[in-house]
């Protein structure tokens, strides 16, 4: 039986009232989500929240659920939906207090239910950017990142499991938003700058801020 997850009572009113644009950033592990988000932040001033970073921060904080989270992440599986969603909500609220103009939610949703729950409890995403990269390239990039990342999940065994999780749980997210007409599929095999040019062309269509 799955462990019971304690939900926090989070007041979402300020976040809903702000009604700022929200973009989901989806792609396999190593597809360049973080890399492209850094560039989007620099150009558009949106707030970048990576669910993986939020989870790693939670682990570092030494909170009781930290050890459990580490084990799940090292196994390449997904952390329970409620844990991630609460962390994302809290981070969004903090950013709204500081005047955020909008959000890049990176690495989320990783399963269709995450997207549905987020959108029913918070707000609909404006667009979903999907960075499309072949598995072979993902493995190469992650093994290269492993040399400097210090991440416990950047090793070949965990990478294989994360790829499996991506195919089984996250690929349906891509189809789900495609069928809603919200998906922007970006071939992300090229150079960082070439990919960013495609990102900009798509974001410029929906945002007036340059
Ligand atoms: N277009 C690209 N071409 C080559 N390497 C890339 C590209 N984009 C990102 N990388 C590298 O691939 C690795 C994974 O990128 P990252 O942004 O951390 O991806 P994600 O957040 O999707 O896991 C990093 O080492 C990064 O420097
Ligand atoms: N939205 C989410 N739901 C469940 N687990 C998540 C999650 N986001 C991250 N995790 C967990 C499982 C992932 O394998 C791990 C690392 O995530 P990440 O930092 O986003 O990886 P990457 O940037 O390589 O795609 O954290
Ligand atoms: Mg990342």
Q: In what range is the share of β-strand residues?
A: 5-15%
Low-pLDDT sequence parts: none
Kindly state the number of beta strands.
Answer: 5
Cα separation of the termini:
49 Å
CATH topology: Rossmann fold
**Structural class of the helix and strand makeup?**
alpha/beta
H/E topology pattern: HEHEHHHEHEHHEH
CATH superfamily: P-loop containing nucleotide triphosphate hydrolases
The gross shape turns out to be globular
Query: What is the C-level CATH assignment?
Result: Alpha Beta
Can you give the helix content as a percent range? 55-70%
How are the secondary structure elements laid out?
Elements: H1 13-18, E1 22-27, H2 33-44, E2 47-50, H3 51-60, H4 66-74, H5 81-97, E3 103-106, H6 112-121, E4 127-132, H7 135-149, H8 156-179, E5 183-187, H9 192-206
Parallel strand pairs: 1-3, 1-4, 2-3, 4-5
Bound molecules: adenosine-5'-diphosphate (ADP), 2'-deoxyadenosine-5'-diphosphate and magnesium ion (MG).
């Amino acid at each position: 039986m799955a462990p019971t997850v304690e939900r926090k009572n989070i007041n979402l009113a300020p976040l809903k009232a702000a009604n700022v644009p929200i973009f989901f950033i989806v792609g396999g592990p190593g597809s360049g989500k973080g890399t492209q988000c850094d560039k989007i932040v620099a150009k558009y001033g949106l707030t970048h929240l990576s669910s993986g970073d939020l989870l790693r921060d939670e682990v570092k904080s030494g909170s009781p659920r930290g050890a459990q989270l580490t084990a799940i992440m090292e196994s390449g599986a997904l952390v329970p939906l409620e844990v991630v969603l609460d962390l994302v909500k809290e981070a969004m609220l903090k950013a709204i207090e500081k005047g955020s103009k909008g959000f890049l939610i990176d690495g989320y949703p990783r399963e269709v239910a995450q997207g549905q729950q987020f959108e029913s409890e918070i707000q609909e995403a404006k667009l979903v950017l999907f960075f499309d990269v072949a598995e072979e390239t993902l493995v190469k990039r992650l093994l290269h990142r492993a040399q400097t990342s210090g991440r416990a999940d950047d090793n070949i065994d965990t990478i294989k499991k994360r790829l499996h999780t991506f195919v089984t749980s996250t690929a349906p997210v891509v189809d789900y938003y495609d069928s809603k007409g919200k998906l922007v599929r970006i071939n992300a095999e090229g150079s960082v700058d070439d990919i960013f040019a495609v990102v900009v062309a798509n974001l410029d269509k929906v945002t007036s801020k340059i």
